[in-house]
Amino acid sequence: MTTDSASQKIIFFIAEDWFACSHWLPLLSSTKLNGFEVVLITNVTSHLSELERHGIRVVPLNIVRQSLNPLSALRTIYRLVKIYRTEQPDICHHIAIKPMLLGSIAAALVNVKHRVNWVAGLGWLFISQGWLPSLLKRSVTKVLGFLLKSTAVIVENGDDAAVMQGIGVPLSHITLIRGAGVDARIFSPKQKESESPVVVVLPARMLWDKGVGEFVEAAALLKAEQLDVRFVLVGGTDIGNPASITEAQLQTWQASEHIEWWGRREDMPKVLEAADIVCLPSYREGLPKALLEAAASGKPIVTTDVPGCREVVINEYNGLVVAEKSAEKLAIALRRLITDSALRHRMGQAGRELVLQEFSQEIIVGKVLSVYERLINE
């Protein structure tokens, strides 16, 4: 950076420590290496030691993501105000909708000089139907529009940029940075031990809006055709999300023998080494890191034509893109890749090249540091 970042303190507010480690640890570490004092506010569960190993100072904050209780939100804002007053950050960086909302209120009350808000997907609230989500969405967008119009806003795809403009954020305040990046050295093409059976992996939190239900239906359709294929769900449940699938449901699917559920895995490079195809039939994303990891690992992808997913997958180039919420169309695309190893190889190579050109960790971190530099120099 061209400015003296050594005297600058940045506070990150990320709701969960596992999310900080799985997606944002390279950014946290790189920010520290570039001379910033880095503080992370997060709900501490089991990743404190990993964060501290990277020199990140953690301030624990218990936040219930699924809570809609306004009193709970006010208590969180009160605690954030106390932390911001104590820490006196030069920049606060809030990641995802709830931290953006609560953190921005607290930062405004304390008058933190520079505020960055990262829209890491618009989440359950913007996908769900019904009167309650619609009411909450109207309320949240109105408040967000007021809070974010005087901050730097990072979005991961063009659709979310349009949403931010629609709620009143000036275009000049919006920066498009496509995802959190991926370490192309860790996630790299490796030779699979056995060519058969073909292994199709869905790597995500076990949420209905990740398209898990459609994946299970597609698996049943293709298993009925006696194809030599395994369908694997990789990811844990997320009780903090209203769209979470119960463990009982996942066990029921596994008992059907159409589906294997491997649970949450910390060794994703190894998981992807065992995969032939990666599938994410999501309803909406910011920009899914799981697909970046798959592409970096040289795996062809089947995904849906929704915000975020279509940022990573170019149809017929590094994967196949289908309509959302259609198990039948998903099965057709999967069948095509399952039965054509040459196509899988060609698309996997194209995905690797795309990551190296546009989505590497170094490229993404450099863009974020440029946002900080611009704010400080102002």
Number of strands: 13
CATH class of the largest domain: Alpha Beta
Shape: globular
CATH fold group of the largest domain:
Rossmann fold
Radius of gyration of CA atoms, rounded to a whole number: 21 Å
Summed up, the domain count is 2
- The order of strands across the largest sheet is 3-2-1-4-5-6-7
Distance between the termini: 14 Å
Would you tell me the overall average pLDDT? 92
Question: Going by CATH, what is the homologous superfamily of the largest domain?
Answer: Glycogen Phosphorylase B
Instruction: Report the uncertain regions.
Output: none
What is the correct CATH architecture of the largest domain? 3-Layer(aba) Sandwich
Query: What does the largest sheet look like?
Result: 7 strands, parallel
Q: Element order, helices and strands?
A: EHEHEHEHEHHEHEEHEHEHEHEHEHHH
Number of helices: 15
Structural class: alpha/beta
Give the % helix.
40-55%
Strand content: 15-25%
Protein name: Glycosyltransferase family 4 protein
Pfam family, one: Glyco_trans_4_2
InterPro entries: Glyco_trans_1, Glyco_trans_4-like_N
Short description:
The protein is α/β, with parallel strands linked by helices and 378 residues long. It has helices at 17-33, 48-53, 70-87, 97-110, 123-127, 131-148, 158-166, 212-223, 247-255, 268-273, 289-296, 309-312, 327-338, 341-359, 361-377; strands at residues 9-16, 37-43, 57-60, 91-95, 114-119, 152-155, 174-176, 198-203, 229-234, 260-261, 277-280, 301-304, 319-322. The mean pLDDT is 92.
